[in-house]
Specification:
single chain; 220 residues; alpha/beta; Nucleotidyltransferase, domain 5; 5-stranded mixed beta sheet; globular; ATPase_NBD; T6A_TsaB; Gcp-like domain-containing protein; Gcp-like_dom
């Protein structure tokens, strides 16, 4: 039985999902501030039990490497690396912006946003996903990124934009040249990460993988 374990810990809300070839996926969530929080390992153990499998039944591990809450991201990445090493499993690693963007239809441009300095700051991580083009990740001032994106999309002939992640309500006032819609979700989810891993076997790697932070080359 081939099974993939997906681990999402880029916010205070942790989620894990397990999918197999012969059964519906199992998804469990917890919040790291809950009194009975017993860590990622405890959440994974519960998910394995609910799926009716053992860790030895896993064929791969998927993990969100951020950006997000750095402490939480590092915890998830460390657990994924340790489990993959112990069981000799490949790892599917992707960023949190792509996980959110993957949850909506790809027939129009998608903008994924995450706060880089807290919600009170205008500094964000942004992922831009335009049909037929490679994803573009950046970090900078929210208003500058949005203004440049609106202009670029209009020049390319697009008239609509779907926004996921943070600052979705504010987007409705940004540009009158684009039809902006709130695509949700507000944060990444392990179920979407699992679906990406199931469809992206060619992107599996031996590991280990590292977290994506503001100091990563992607955002410099």
């Amino acid at each position: 039985m081939k099974a993939i374990l997906a681990i999402e810990t880029s916010t205070k809300d942790y989620s894990v999902a397990i999918g197999t070839e012969s059964a519906a996926s199992v998804r469990l969530t917890t919040t790291r501030f809950e009194p009975d929080f017993d860590g990622i390992a405890g959440l994974v153990d519960k998910a394995l039990a609910e799926a009716g499998i053992r860790s030895s039944d896993l064929a791969a591990v998927a993990v969100d490497i951020g950006p997000g809450n750095l402490t939480s991201v590092r915890a998830g990445v460390a657990y994924a690396n340790g489990l993959a090493y112990a069981l000799d499993l490949p790892i599917f690693a992707t960023d949190s912006l792509s996980v959110m963007a993957h949850s909506v239809p790809a027939d129009a441009p998608v903008l994924a946003l995450r706060p880089a300095r807290g919600v009170a700051s205008s500094e964000v991580y942004a992922g831009i996903y335009v049909p037929g083009r490679p994803a573009s990740l950046s970090r900078g001032d929210y208003w500058v990124i949005i203004d440049e994106l609106a202009t670029s999309l209009a020049e390319q002939g697009f008239d609509a934009l779907t926004v996921v992640g943070a600052y979705r309500p504010e987007m409705t006032d940004v540009s009158t040249s684009l039809k902006v819609q709130d695509g949700g979700p507000a944060a990444p989810d392990a179920s979407t990460l699992l679906a990406m891993a199931q469809a992206g076997e060619e992107r599996m790697s031996p590991g280990p993988v590292g977290p994506l932070t503001e100091e990563s080359e992607t955002f410099l």
